[in-house]
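Q: Convert this sequence to structure tokens.
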Amino acid sequence: MERWFSPQVLYSILKPFYTVRATVNCAFRKRTYTSPRPNFLHISQPMRTQRQQRVNDYLNRILEFLPDRLPEDKWAQNCRVEGLEYLQTAYQKKRPVVLACCHFGAFELSRFWLRAKGVPAAALRAGKAEFRGPLMRLKDKFSPFPEVQIAFYGDQIRAIDEFMAAGNLLIVAIDSPVQKQIDVPFCEGWTFQIAAGAVRLAARHNADLIPLSVIDEGHWKFTIKVGELVPRELLSSKNDWPLAGKHLIDQMIPVFRTWPEQCRPDLIRCLKQTGDPTI
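A:
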């Protein structure tokens, strides 16, 4: 079907089936958002909005099984990457890059789209390598740049170090609860607890540290925003790591403000009140 139809037509064909699934799940597995958050991240979520978010999530997962098709012209136009030239240059010059992201939008698709654009990025995942089953490993063989590993896990420290030393790009979530946490200012009355892994990796390998956000515009259309490079001097000392984290968060806050409905629960849980949240 993917070869017969355009992405827009294929989306329209599949959407009714996933709408039924999302409707059933919304009725029996309701998403509740009880974690405190700043006022600008408070959004009303009627049933219709929750259902549409689930539909988008379900349909986006299909793209993970089409990694070899995303470089095709008919798909490539569905994803715009702001700052792609910088990443392409870094890869060509074998300069290691750590791309710091949050559980926001279609963050799961970041490595697939970047590979489709000629940048063989990998992702650092939670858990152990043994969790990556046969189907996932088979899928990896069809991804662009199959010779470059597509995912690493927390128990692959040596492999990660070798990957970075070879001048590659690694996507690391900074809103993970399993690493050492760094408190950075978020907005008035709030701090954001970021995982130190991305900053530590960038410092260890003298890598560029750059924020990355994947905005889901619906109907299989996306915008990937590559933010501004964290100043190198903020990685030289652990005492400056909170400033590096603040740089990352400051780059992401405008995106969170514009698309608050795309902030996932893992991201929201990183927010901590420090006083009267007046914003």
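Strands lie at 79-82, 97-101, 122-125, 151-153, 169-173, 181-187, 190-195, 208-218, 221-226, 271-273.
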